[in-house]
Amino acid sequence: MGSxxxxxxxxxxxxxxxxALQLLPLLGAAVxxxxxxxxxxxxxxxxxxxxxxxxxxxxxxxxxxxxxxxQLAERFAPLAYHVAVDGISLIFLLLTALLTLLMTLYGMSxxxxxxxxxxxxxxxxxAGLVGMLVTVNVAWFAAFSALELWAxxxxxxxxxxxxxxxxxxxxxxxxQAFGWALFAAGCIVLGWGHAEATxxxxxxxxxxxxxxxxxxxxxxxxxxxxxxxxxxxxxxxPLHGWLPNMAQxxxxxxxxxxxxxAKVGIYGMLRFVLPLTPAAVEYWQPYVVxxxxxxxxxxxxxxFQQTNLRRLLAFAVVSHTSLLxxxxxxxxxxxxxxxxxxxxxxxxxxxxxxxIVGFVFRxxxxxxxxxxxxxFERIPFLAIAFLVFGLAIVGMxxxxxxxxxHLILExxxxxxxxxxxxxxALGNVAAAGFLLWAFQKAFLSQAKAGSHDVDKTLxxxxxxxxxxxxxxxxxxxxxxxxxFLTETASQAAAARFAR
Amino acid sequence: MTLPLLSLLVFxxxxxxxxxxxxxxxxxxxxxxxxxxxxxxxxxAALVAYNPAGARFQLVERxxxxxxxNIQYLLAVDGISVLFLPAxxxxxIGSLVACWNVVREAPRLHYSLLLLLQTTTLGxxxxxxxxxxxxxxxxxxxxxxxxxxxxxxxxxxxxxxxxYFLIMLAGGIPLLIAFVILASSQAVPTFDLMALLxxxxxxxxxxxxFLLCLLGFGVKVPLVPLHTWLPQxxxxxxxxxxxxxxxxxxxxxxLIRFAIPLAPDAAxxxxxxxxxxxxxxxxxxxxxxxxxxxxRVGLAYASICHVGLAVLGLASYSAQAAQGAVSLLLSFSxxxxxxxxxxxxxxxxxxxxxxxxLGGAAKTMPLLATGFLICGLAGVGMxxxxxxxxxxxxxxxxxxxHTGAGMxxxxxLSIAAGGFLSLYRKAFFGPISRxxxxxxxxxxxREWAVLVALIVMIVGIGIYPGPWIxxxxxxxxxWAVGLAR
Lengths: 499, 485
What we know:
The structure holds 2 protein chains of 2 kinds. Chain A is mainly alpha-helical.
């Protein structure tokens, strides 16, 4: 049993980095909001997003990945404020910061109404995500999650791209509110359990809860509430119903990137569900994995049915999320490490694809596959970028997906045997199938007569896709530092479970 | 520390591809030609630097790559792979000549993809770390997909490209799983082929590894029934691409380099499977060829047939068979690759390679017809051509260990020869009925040069095979010794 330890920030850095990481986007949101309609707001939004990314890199440089303890910890007892990170949280943090930066760049030329407010909400959402990633208190996690969901709902309501948005929005709110309520109920079960064990002291802190893990059916209840609460937002089959509609009708790229690009659902499972309900996790592992395996194929089959590129990408997300869950619930250090790296890889790749879909939509006004054709001739760079992102999802060598898939396969062979491993890997080929199919329809097919006159790639588009591509390939061919960053943390996570 | 010759060789085309984008567009083709000649020079240098009497693996370059998974950047050549390097370089030059005047749309992108394909192909032959090998192996798909999907010659080329890509991707899975099993069954997980060869595995693991590798490489070879992508590919792809894909015997190379030596006991147990697959491929390819009217598809079936012979011979696991297989595969690289390049010349002139649209082509294009005949005869293993020594060794090996299969193979090979001559007669002899054939002009000097180089190699090696076979022999003997332990 790996019990939790922590190292406080003053041993490692000159200032409370995690607090700074949380406050910077909040400050940014306030400043940008104050500049509302002026063009300075746009510039400031980008500056704050870049600053957050740089601060994240500073945090990584202060972390010692060889130590299993949670690090850079900060506590403030009266508010039950308690934050700490390990290599895995920082990977997700960097991903979130990078995605936010790309979103601010992406928003640039859209000529949106009140860009200041858009950027302010975006930075609020980032603050919510960062808060979820650094906190080790389940109640704080739930609170930050509420903040981030509110920001996304606001974005969807105000800047939706299609008249069907109200329906999509209603669906989104129903699902997310339900998921959030489940998670909150799970928190209460845990807190209650702690109060029972300690004679009336309520706590939601991971470190306290670790010592008072609920037993028997309470643990099962806590597991189900927390797991399915997070599964809604991950989204995990069969709780994915909100995503395709939101992807089709919502604000292109930004909303899906915030919801599924940042992958906090998977992170939450690792940080809270695995350590706090270990026996239930082990007991229910075959069911979770079985559902996930079914999910890989079922959603891949649904993806083949789609006629809209945005919906298709949504199903691609659900399909690959199932793979992440298989990796995570292998409860094997290689599988956990692979799942975490793969999650970051998927987040970056899928957001990149969503950006490109957004660029295409700006040119053509549609994302219906049968109305798109011959885009390769006009925007070859974006076409190739789209394919590379697609290949990253499939785990092509040279992208971070390769080493991650490698690790998951290793864990999967070890835990579930070769047959299920091959089946899962084939599900991945199915994903390659529908992504290629979509690519061919939209990009490679002969341009239809009377089709849209498509503008050439803009400098901003080169920048956004170029950054994402460069990050992808650089990590892909130079994976070592990232493996190093996550290795000890994955071992610590897997140490709770029997091999 | 000496010059990292293999790294230079592998990455010269990639650097060339990058250079294309930095220099003006009109310089594209000369640069590509220059880069490919430089690559050929480096490949020849590697061949000269290789000492057949020396260590098993030479020109070794080793550096840590992903240390925590113990994946290394490890390049080396042995007698089995060293000859494939100049053959690859030559084939790419032939392919370049075949598409010299054809690529009108986005030529820079086309040639950079071609150069990328060359880097990955050379990487496959040089990589000695299974993970690095797999990286090169899978990366080959990306340029191939684009080259076929974007510059294909039929309307269905995008579909053919996707099909090829998906089948190959699915084939990659068993390979990756096999490599992961191999690595994790060691005391210290490693992907280093030399270390893996030195450490024997339990028999059950070997069987799994062998079958997975057979599946993974069998798709690429292609072995019947995993060959379904090939005819469609041959029809949809321009000849310059088919020449590369059919000419490069990567699948069979994978079997010789990885599948058999890594799981020797399983390979010996399952010799009947390998021999059976080989025999089926020979017969199926030969009969399939008879049914074709398109020369390109016919050649694709012929290639199934010939690689089948290599696989059948390998099932005897003797040094002689390995030596024969390597020299036969090399000869086919040159001969089949050359034949596809010549067919591309023919297609550019007449618009078709279907025998029904040809007829009498030898009258207007005597040089092309002669060249194609020589390549074709080399393809059916005519004595005096470069294929004969290898084919002879393989048939002897097959007859000694699998007599029945060897007889069937002989039968299949004669059908294939007949099939080739029949197609050839319909296309090149008889009266001219089409204006496209009547108006066609014979080979230009640039194409001529390719043809002469091909014929010199085919006939030269055919008459005087000694030095080439000697390069392979020590490595082939080491290969067989490794199996017999």
